[in-house]
């Protein structure tokens, strides 16, 4: 298996193009199940998760065509056509590799009146139950059965009648599933305390472009008036705010200056606020953001929260940055119960971090040193890359399949700004 070898210490400078958002793409792709007409998505990132989702869609009989962008270009165009759905079952083998497969449940139920999806298991960052996905669908009139590790959802003849659901906990995925089920309901569906992440807005915008009727887009109360049918659409996937935030940390931890082309400052306001508190300079304009630092970073306290709060998907990267900041920082992870898997690895590189439950106390150290490390999830892996970029000596990061799920051409992008990083085959 491949590994990344990083020789730390280079000041990163230049421009990084920001890719389409993984977490938006993973909810836009299943929208193709909602119509017989083609849905064309532009600016799709080249990621293992997107390939996995394409495979899953093919399994349902959806034809997918990747249109000709050159391999050297970032972003792809994929047309998906679900003229005839030949299977309503998402098997364990595909779902286990990609949790987001659960997002086919809502649209498949809406279009076909039934859907059977393997229950996704827990993962490194926590249990990640799907009870709220199922309760929301039940509230709209679906019948749910659980058997042999699969969830089977069925709509009454003629479709979902509609209803209301008040989320007891904000859930991005459950909001997405509920929205995709609601758009073809016979009546009106109301969602209260829904997630408001920019990726949800992206989903709503595509659904509206396909003919859906949704009120309250961008707020936590959404009203969906079901329509008889949806039509095809062409849509550009939003920029990846987590990828942009991750590279912003790379500029900061190396005392560098990076232009993040295509990043949208307003969608990552909490990350920008945190970076400014740490002493990082950020300039925002209509086409991107520019991040620079003289290397003099200071401690800050951070708490993750649903949007517009600080994204849990930025916690590990900001923690890596704080490892070298002056003073003591306190981090609180409120979204996932087990999202500090990077801590022991960062410690092996010289970081001074203590954790107690959901709290981490990070005391800034003068220097980090290169080491052989590996992480068990996507953002944790990126935090190790960050530490490697700032460390003295060589760092080797293993288990690259995590990074390949979520960072398009990671090492190429870092090389563009002067990082000494290469992917090599394992010996
Ligand atoms: C593909 C995708 O978009 N993934 C993102 C999505 O994951 P995902 O959609 O899985 O995360 P959720 O927003 O659903 O999870 C938030 C919290 O709700 C809990 N919960 C969720 C569903 C449920 O049915 N029951 C329940 O209790 C979870 O365990 C967690 O504690 O949002 C997370 C939170 O911003 C991000 O970290 C992930 O990157
Ligand atoms: C946790 C993440 O993704 P997923 O929900 O796909 O595991 C992430 O993007 O950081």
TrEMBL record:
<dbReference type="InterPro" id="IPR013792">
    <property type="entry name" value="RNA3'P_cycl/enolpyr_Trfase_a/b"/>
</dbReference>
<keyword id="KW-0961">Cell wall biogenesis/degradation</keyword>
<dbReference type="GO" id="GO:0008760">
    <property type="term" value="F:UDP-N-acetylglucosamine 1-carboxyvinyltransferase activity"/>
</dbReference>
<dbReference type="InterPro" id="IPR005750">
    <property type="entry name" value="UDP_GlcNAc_COvinyl_MurA"/>
</dbReference>
<dbReference type="InterPro" id="IPR001986">
    <property type="entry name" value="Enolpyruvate_Tfrase_dom"/>
</dbReference>
<keyword id="KW-0133">Cell shape</keyword>
<keyword id="KW-0963">Cytoplasm</keyword>
<feature type="domain" description="Enolpyruvate transferase">
    <location>
        <begin position="7"/>
        <end position="414"/>
    </location>
</feature>
<feature type="binding site">
    <location>
        <position position="99"/>
    </location>
    <ligand>
        <name>UDP-N-acetyl-alpha-D-glucosamine</name>
    </ligand>
</feature>
<keyword id="KW-0131">Cell cycle</keyword>
<feature type="binding site">
    <location>
        <begin position="128"/>
        <end position="132"/>
    </location>
    <ligand>
        <name>UDP-N-acetyl-alpha-D-glucosamine</name>
    </ligand>
</feature>
<dbReference type="InterPro" id="IPR036968">
    <property type="entry name" value="Enolpyruvate_Tfrase_sf"/>
</dbReference>
<dbReference type="Pfam" id="PF00275">
    <property type="entry name" value="EPSP_synthase"/>
</dbReference>
<keyword id="KW-0573">Peptidoglycan synthesis</keyword>
<feature type="binding site">
    <location>
        <position position="313"/>
    </location>
    <ligand>
        <name>UDP-N-acetyl-alpha-D-glucosamine</name>
    </ligand>
</feature>
<feature type="modified residue" description="2-(S-cysteinyl)pyruvic acid O-phosphothioketal">
    <location>
        <position position="123"/>
    </location>
</feature>
<feature type="binding site">
    <location>
        <position position="335"/>
    </location>
    <ligand>
        <name>UDP-N-acetyl-alpha-D-glucosamine</name>
    </ligand>
</feature>
<comment type="function">
    <text>Cell wall formation. Adds enolpyruvyl to UDP-N-acetylglucosamine.</text>
</comment>
<feature type="binding site">
    <location>
        <begin position="22"/>
        <end position="23"/>
    </location>
    <ligand>
        <name>phosphoenolpyruvate</name>
    </ligand>
</feature>
<comment type="pathway">
    <text>Cell wall biogenesis; peptidoglycan biosynthesis.</text>
</comment>
<protein>
    <recommendedName>
        <fullName>UDP-N-acetylglucosamine 1-carboxyvinyltransferase</fullName>
        <ecNumber>2.5.1.7</ecNumber>
    </recommendedName>
</protein>
<dbReference type="InterPro" id="IPR050068">
    <property type="entry name" value="MurA_subfamily"/>
</dbReference>
<keyword id="KW-0670">Pyruvate</keyword>
<comment type="similarity">
    <text>Belongs to the EPSP synthase family. MurA subfamily.</text>
</comment>
<feature type="active site" description="Proton donor">
    <location>
        <position position="123"/>
    </location>
</feature>
<keyword id="KW-0132">Cell division</keyword>
<keyword id="KW-0808">Transferase</keyword>
């Amino acid at each position: 298996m491949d590994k990344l070898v990083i020789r730390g210490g280079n000041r990163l400078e230049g421009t990084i193009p920001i890719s389409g958002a993984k977490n938006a793409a993973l909810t836009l792709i299943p929208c193709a199940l909602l119509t017989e007409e083609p849905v064309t998505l532009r600016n799709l990132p080249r990621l293992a998760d997107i390939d996995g989702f394409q495979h899953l869609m093919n399994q349902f009989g959806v034809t997918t065509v990747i249109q000709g962008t050159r391999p050297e270009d970032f972003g792809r165009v994929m047309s998906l056509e679900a003229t005839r759905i030949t299977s309503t079952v998402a098997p364990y083998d595909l779902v286990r590799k990609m949790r987001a497969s659960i997002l086919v449940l809502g649209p498949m139920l809406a279009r076909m009146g039934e859907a059977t999806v393997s229950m996704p298991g827990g993962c490194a960052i926590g249990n990640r139950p799907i009870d709220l996905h199922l309760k929301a669908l039940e509230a709209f009139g679906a019948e749910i059965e659980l058997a042999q590790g699969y969830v089977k959802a069925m709509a009454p003849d003629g479709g979902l009648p509609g209803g209301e659901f008040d989320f007891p906990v904000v859930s991005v995925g459950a909001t997405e599933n509920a929205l995709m089920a609601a758009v073809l309901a016979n009546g009106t569906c109301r969602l209260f305390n829904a997630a408001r992440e920019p990726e949800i807005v992206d989903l709503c915008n595509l659904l509206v472009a396909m003919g859906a009727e949704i009120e309250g887009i961008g707020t936590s109360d959404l009203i969906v008036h079901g329509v008889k049918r949806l039509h095809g659409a062409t849509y550009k996937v939003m920029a990846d705010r987590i990828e942009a935030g991750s590279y912003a940390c790379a500029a900061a931890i190396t005392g560098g200056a990076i232009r993040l082309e295509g990043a949208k400052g307003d969608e990552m306001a909490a990350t920008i606020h945190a970076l400014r508190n740490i002493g990082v300079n950020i300039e925002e304009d209509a086409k991107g953001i520019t991040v620079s630092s003289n290397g003099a970073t200071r401690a800050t306290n951070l708490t993750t929260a649903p949007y517009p709060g600080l994204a849990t998907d930025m916690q590990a990267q900001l923690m890596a940055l704080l490892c070298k900041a002056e003073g003591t920082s306190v981090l609180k992870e409120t979204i996932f119960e087990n999202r500090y898997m990077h801590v022991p690895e960062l410690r092996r590189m010289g970081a001074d971090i203590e954790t107690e439950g959901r709290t981490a106390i990070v005391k800034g150290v003068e220097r980090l040193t290169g080491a052989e490390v590996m992480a068990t999830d996507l953002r944790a892996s990126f935090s190790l890359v960050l530490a490697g970029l700032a460390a003295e000596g060589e760092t080797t990061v293993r288990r690259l399949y995590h990074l390949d799920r979520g960072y398009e051409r990671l090492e190429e992008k870092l090389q563009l700004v002067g990082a000494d990083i290469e992917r090599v085959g394992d010996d």
